[in-house]
Automatic annotation (TrEMBL):
Reactions that this protein is recorded to catalyse: L-threonyl-[protein] + ATP = O-phospho-L-threonyl-[protein] + ADP + H(+); L-seryl-[protein] + ATP = O-phospho-L-seryl-[protein] + ADP + H(+)
Keywords in alphabetical order: ATP-binding, Kinase, Nucleotide-binding, Serine/threonine-protein kinase, Transferase
Superkingdom as given in the UniProt entry: Eukaryota
Ranges where the Protein kinase domain occurs: 1-309
Sequence similarity: Belongs to the protein kinase superfamily. STE Ser/Thr protein kinase family. STE20 subfamily.
A Gene Ontology term for the protein's cellular component: cytoplasm
InterPro entries: Kinase-like_dom_sf (IPR011009), Prot_kinase_dom (IPR000719), STE20/SPS1-PAK (IPR050629)
A GO term for molecular function: protein serine/threonine kinase activity
Species of provenance: Adineta steineri
Protein name: Protein kinase domain-containing protein
Length: 365
């Protein structure tokens, strides 16, 4: 994949990485902001370095890398370069200055604006339609896997949970799948009830729609509906199986019980809920995404026609107009300025001071 051994990348700064699915793998990953010195525009990229010897879930990680090779869409994270030095795997990805949606919520814990959520949902729907046209389920849609660039471009990342609806045994297209790998527990807060059931009915593309609706609620409310529940995952599993559906928290949903249960730690959040009122289109969009009934839950094609995404859809034919509109909204969410301290990437790549020409850097897959 990389044929030039004279690596041109230069480090600008180290970056804080969003928590990965595996804490041990996260500890073995180092993330940097970099650029190609041969690029006159000095476009910024993200460099991630993984020590393969210390990774505990290598098969899932390799699967993630292989999907990058197969997928190509404006709203899917891409891989610019991938190369190996000793046991260190180096990935070069596009740089999203606003980080992930989880990063955005860590700065704005009461949630973000409805107009921004509409833009994010519209672009994610384009990514999901692309995947579904190729009979692929993502199964990992969550706030930490959705990134926002400074030009308003939204990128869906993490393909380690992707699965094809085409049977590997007979090559036929399956209407339902019944794959329940242990790794799916990483996204359990966002998984649809039918995946958790693990029954004979299986699940399909609409399970990704449920995850999308859960993310929409999280972006509006400031946190996932099922996080920090008493008794942890057990309460969350029981709630989903009993038909609990995430809702948007605004003045129309605020109850006397919620007000009575508020304390000093939550009183400011309750006051925020009292002030805000989401549109009926937004409430409808979320309801159509997170319905526990598959018959009531909308498909991706139906959601693309939903009034909630009418505005981004209207201007989507003009990429510059769309970018300008997103930039106007994102102006409220100031991206954190980074230090401009440069370092040669060679210092990061080769701590043992080995020569590049003594190492095979190419990695074809």
């Amino acid at each position: 994949m990389l044929n030039n051994y004279d690596l041109p990348y230069r480090i600008i700064d180290s970056l804080k990485q969003t928590n990965s699915n595996d804490e041990e793998d996260y500890d073995n990953c180092f993330t940097y902001l970099t650029y190609d010195s041969k690029d006159k525009n000095k476009t910024k990229y993200v460099l991630k370095i993984f020590d393969l010897e210390k990774m505990t879930n290598l098969s899932e990680f390799i699967k993630d890398i292989l999907w990058y090779k197969q997928l190509n869409h404006y709203n899917l994270m891409s891989l610019r370069d991938c190369f190996l030095i000793d046991t260190k795997l180096h990935l070069i990805k596009p740089y999203a200055s606003f980080g992930s949606c989880a990063d955005l919520l860590s700065v704005h814990p009461f949630g973000i604006r409805e107009q921004l959520i509409a833009h994010i949902m519209w672009q994610l729907l384009q990514a999901l339609r692309y995947l579904q046209d190729r009979h692929i389920m993502h199964r990992g849609i969550s706030s930490k896997n959705i990134y926002i660039c400074d030009n308003g471009r939204v990128l869906l990342d993490n393909f380690s949970h992707c699965i094809s609806m085409i049977s590997p045994f007979d090559g036929k297209l399956r209407r339902q799948i019944y794959d329940y790998t242990d790794s799916l527990k990483d996204e359990i807060l966002y998984l649809a009830p039918e995946i958790i059931y693990q029954n004979a009915d299986g699940y399909n593309f609409k399970s990704d729609v449920y995850s999308l609706g859960t993310v929409a609620c999280e972006l509006a409310n400031g946190s996932n509906t099922y996080i920090d529940m008493p008794f942890g995952s057990l309460s969350m599993l029981y709630a989903k199986i009993q038909g609990s559906e995430p809702i948007l928290l605004d003045q129309t949903q605020l109850t006397d019980e919620m007000i009575a249960l508020s304390d000093d730690n939550s009183s400011s959040y309750v006051e925020e809920i009292k002030r805000r009122r989401y549109t009926k289109e937004f409430h409808s969009f979320v309801k159509n995404c997170v319905s526990t009934s598959l018959e009531s839950r909308h498909s991706v094609d139906e959601l693309i026609m939903h009034p909630f995404v009418k505005h981004p859809k209207k201007i989507s034919h003009d990429s510059q107009h769309l970018a300008d509109d997103m930039a106007k909204i994102l102006g409220f969410y100031k991206a954190k300025e980074l230090n401009n301290t440069e370092a040669n990437i060679e210092q990061i790549f080769d701590n043992s001071n080995k020569k590049y020409n003594s190492i095979n850097l190419s990695w074809e897959f």
